[in-house]
Structures are given as C-alpha cells and as structure tokens.
Amino acid sequence: MQILDAEKESKIWPLFRLGFRVFFMGGALFSCLAMFLWLLSLSGMAVLPGVGNPIWWHAHEMLFGFALAIVAGFVLTAMQNWTGIAGVRGWPLALVAGLWLLPRLLMPLRGELNPLVITLDLLWLPLVAGMLARPVLQVKQWRNLFFVPLFVLFTLLNALSYYAAFSGNWLLSERVFVTTVLALTGLIAVMGGRVIPFFTANATGTDKPVPHPWLEKLSLGTLWLGVLGWLLLPRTDGFNSALALILMVSALANLVRLARWNNKLARNIPLLWVLHLGYLFVPLGLLALAAALLNWGISISLASHWLTTGAIGIVILGMIARVSLGHSGRTLEIRRSVVIAFVLLILAALLRSLLPLLAPGMTNMAYHTSAMAWMLAFGLFNWVYWPILTRPRIDGRPG
Description:
This protein is mainly alpha-helical.
C-alpha cells in the first residue's frame, strides 16, 4: 500500500485524512439535526421555511443526505485496503465533502426546487464515483468496480427525485425513494455478506462459514431484481403480485443466509450482535414491502421504515462504530454509552415500524419517540467518536 510520508500527512487536518472521518462525523451530526427539524415540523413548527414538501425533504435528506454520506465515507476508506492505493484525502476530500454539505444547509432555507441546491447536490455523488473508479481501474480490480455504477444509479435516482418534486408528483417521489431504500438495502446485503461472517469469525476464533453460491445468487439477485422492479414495473395488481413474490423470495433467502453466519457466537459482543440484528431487518423489511404491495394492512411508507430506521440505520451505526476504531489505530472495544446507542436505535426501529401496526392510535407517539431515540443514539455516537475522528491515529500511521 502506498503510504504518505509523515511530514505530508501532518499538514492535512485529521478530519480530511480519509473519507470515513469527515463523512461518518458529518453524516451522524446531520442525521441528528435533520431528525430534530423533522420532529419540530411534525409538531407544527415552521422550521423549514424554504421547503414546499416537508415529507419529501425528510425522505430525501435521510437517504441522499445521511445514508449516502456514510456509504461514501465507507467505500472511499475501504477502497484503500482493497486496491492498495492511498485513499482520497486533503483538499479533494474536503471539496467533495463541501459539495455534500452545502445542499444540506441550503435546502431548508432555499427549498428543494432551488437551482443552486439541485446543482450542488447532483455533483457530489458523481465525484465520489470518479474517486472510486480511479484506483479500481489502476489495479484492474473489477470486483470492486461494482460501486461505480452503483453511485451513478444513486445520482440518477437523486435527479429523478428532484424531477418528482418539481412536477409535484408524490407517487413518483415515493417510487424513487423506495427504490433508493431497496438499492441501499442491496448494498448492505452485498457488504454484509463480505464482512459480517468475517468479523464474527475473527472475533470468536471460529471458521468463517463457506458461502453457498446458489444462496448468494438467489438472495442478492432477487434483491437487485426487486430494485429494478420497484422503479420500472407498472403499478397493476398483476405486476404488484409478481414484485411481491420476488421480495418474498429475497426475504427468505436473506434470512437463510443470515442464519448461517454463526449468530449465537455474537450474543456477548456488541460490535457483532448489532450487525446481526441490523441485518435481520433486511428480510423483515422485504416481507413488509411485499405485504404493502398486496394490500395486507400495511402502507408502503410504514413498510419502508423496517428497512430505513431498521436495516440501514442499525447496520450503519454498527459499522461506523467499528470502522472508526479500526482505522484510527484503536482496539475494537466500545464504551457502554455506545452499546446504549445500539439499543436506542433498535428501539427507534421497532417503535417506528411495529408500534403503528399494533396500535394505530399511537402512530403519532411512535413517530416522536422513534425520532427522539434516533437522535439520542447518533448523539451518543457523536459525543464518543468526535475525538476519535478529529484527531490523528494513535499509532502514528497515516489515515
């Protein structure tokens, strides 16, 4: 791996020495702010003066503002390990982080239809794609080229979401947002299959389960087919039934896949059980979306939160807690406050996804308590990890 000399590294502010630092911290802080503004908006307060559709803003910003910032930080960092080429750092990283941040700050004031907001927001994801493509092409590591078209897909979905907002087409907005949720879930399924069994085997001194090729193809293939189907298929009873069947097959395949990852060995290790539990929300969320398509007593919005607050939120918190320690030269040991954050986020997912189903009269309370639990969980992460992410590695190495 190419290593920067100490003098050159010391001139870079630690926050911009690798992608995980600025995007993990920025994404986590932004999620707290965005959830706080959403909570105030739900309470009837005019805290988004420029925004025409607060529901659109909430969905867009939690996906394209929060979740994709964390994904960008993860892959920009991991690409260094995968390719052996030094990761993006310094002013190029600061530039792409700034392009991510500016639309987040401007949108509440200028609105989702502001040309400057839209232009800035459509720039940062293609830049990340280019930064990912360079080392992959340089070493011809085609397996990891997967992330480049994925970020192009997210850029197209982002552009389509703005088009839906401009045209006032909420059905199109919902279709785009759920497609994005499924694509993020597909990414979790791909990366989860790589790292969760590996982390579990390393931490417990056991053998990593050998993947079944047919199960991997079935679980991932049906999930990505569901992504395309949700975006492109007409909304008729026949097509809805076919798409629901695809999601059910994917849910069952991913549940079997998860069951093979030695879950029992993770019970006493928080950095493991949070990932296993987070991944459990993947098949649960896919089943919920299938039920919504079949009109089995659950709305698409409610079903999607099994994946957003559940799978995406929990896996993200578990991964950033672990990756931040490893890439800052620290041992994989977490404070009790971080374990509390894990529990709070699982509680947030259950409150947001399950309570409205069991007690529809408590739906409003579910929204508020879930949002508060989310803010507390990521607030605890920010409090514990601020010194870790904003200071140099403790072992003196670059990164």
